[in-house]
Design goal:
Largest sheet: none
Number of strands: 0
Distance between the termini: 49 Å
Shape: globular
Number of domains: 1
Low-confidence stretches: none
Strand content: under 5%
Oligomer: single chain
């Protein structure tokens, strides 16, 4: 994966960074935690400026969340609840969870988008409930842009400040990432096995 990212940056420069960050939102196994620190490190080699790295990464990432937002708009709450009713075990999501999430998002929407863009995995998925709740697109883009700029800047500056030490640090990142992925997989299997299709019903009843 790192070799592919390196190749894209060498071939396309800042446009490669934007494309990679766009794909990161569409194809999650390509993590921004690898792309942006590596881009920040390359800026210390004189290939591009750190400002160009941050701007291109932010633009690419922001464009990548738009398809998920429209997917949420197209699905809507009713379709999402029906899907959860049929396939909820594999998503560990019940129809009541969908209703609760929609209510919570309508109450916390803008801040949920902003802070959600700072959390791995949630960064992409937060766009779907924004679309389901019909959050106005301009507002969604503004809050997404703020969260995205903070995230990409932090990662790019980490690679930039590490400088030559980046290659040493990156040797340890891979094994740690693998351990995290295994733990996530184990937790997912546990959630599927213990899934309760009526999860959230009691809480939903109390709110009515």
């Amino acid at each position: 994966m790192e070799a592919f990212v390196q190749s894209m940056m060498q071939t396309l420069g800042v446009f490669g960074i934007a494309l990679l960050m766009f794909l990161e939102n569409i194809f999650p196994p390509m993590p921004s935690e690898l792309i942006m620190p590596l881009a920040g490190y390359r800026s210390t080699q004189g290939d591009m400026s750190i400002v160009a790295v941050i701007v291109s990464g932010s633009i690419g990432s922001l464009l990548g969340v738009v398809p998920w937002y429209y997917a949420g708009r197209w699905l809507g709450k009713a379709r999402t609840k029906r899907f959860a009713e049929r396939h909820g075990r594999w998503l560990t999501l019940s129809p009541a969870d969908v209703e609760l999430a929609d209510r919570w998002f309508k109450d916390k929407g803008p801040l949920a988008v902003l802070f959600g863009r700072l959390v791995p995995t949630v960064r992409t998925l937060i766009s779907v409930p924004a679309g389901i709740a019909c959050m106005p697109l301009p507002r969604f883009l503004v809050y997404s842009a703020i969260g995205t700029a903070i995230w990409t800047s932090a990662l790019a500056l980490a690679g930039y400040l590490l400088g030559q030490a980046y290659e040493t640090v990156s040797a340890y990142v891979g094994p740690v990432s693998n351990v995290v992925l295994v733990l996530i997989a184990v937790y997912y299997v546990y959630r599927v096995v213990t899934f309760d299709p009526n999860h959230g019903e009691d809480r939903l009843q109390r709110q009515r």
